[in-house]
Write a structure and sequence with these properties.
Blueprint (H helix, E strand, L loop, with lengths): L1 H12 L3 H13 L3 E2 H10 L6 H13 L3 E6 L2 E6 L1 H21 L1
Antiparallel strand pairs: 1-3, 2-3
């Protein structure tokens, strides 16, 4: 049951389009991105938000385990955790297998 709760929290964190966009932007960069870069990149996709709002979305993704935070002085850099994405993918694959068996 703990696994189900963890998966639910992860999927809940992905319930906002801006958070999926953030994950995509960070993953596409291949390394890490700072808050300022992410804020500028989001504007390209029509998300014009305050830095505090962006930080709240990043914090949610961090708590869900999708990203890691690294600090360099006053800058905060974020990178995607592939293991968390893989775990979520596995959870969906398990559900798909159960649905196949049930039908």
């Amino acid at each position: 049951m703990d696994t189900i709760k963890r998966d639910a929290e992860r999927f809940k964190a992905l319930g906002y389009p801006i958070r999926l966009c953030l994950l995509s932007l960070i993953a596409r960069h291949g390394g890490s991105k700072n808050v300022g870069d992410l804020q500028r990149d989001l504007e390209i996709y029509g998300y014009v938000i305050e830095q505090a709002t962006l930080s709240a979305h990043l914090r949610t993704l961090y708590w869900a385990g999708f990203i890691e935070e690294q600090r360099a002085g006053q800058e905060h850099y974020y990178c995607v955790r592939g293991d968390a994405l893989a775990a979520s993918q596995d959870a969906l694959a398990d559900l798909a297998r159960l649905a196949e068996v049930a039908s």
